[in-house]
Amino acid sequence: MSGNSIHILDKDLSIIKHELKVNSPFEACGVLVGLVDANDKNTVRVVCAVPIKNSNRTHRSFELDPAGFYKAWAGAEDEGLDIVGIYHTHPLSPARPSAWDLEYMQQEQNIWMIAGADGIFAYRWKDGGAQAVEII
Hints:
By secondary structure, the chain is an alpha/beta fold. It has 3 helices and 7 strands, in the order βαββαβαβββ.
């Protein structure tokens, strides 16, 4: 998936911030549903952030609940949309990819949005590493 920038509305950022707060000290996770901008292939547009249960409820990792992921994916497909990203929280650390995140970013090439104590940042795997994605 392309995407040098991600357009996400305040309502969806608020959902992610809320998930960070109410699930702390455990990681929370979900998906970003949307599409690649028809006029600018370098921009991904988020239509909604969808919280999904963390099946691996720990302080340092997450696993999207398979049933919740399937429901989000099927709902996106019904609307003609895609899963364009994954979000998760780092309640006890900065919003930077961990070693675990980097390993899985290589396999899941969508945008990764991370919310931590220092804010919300987005990344994607490109050219052998995590690269920042502008949030607009």
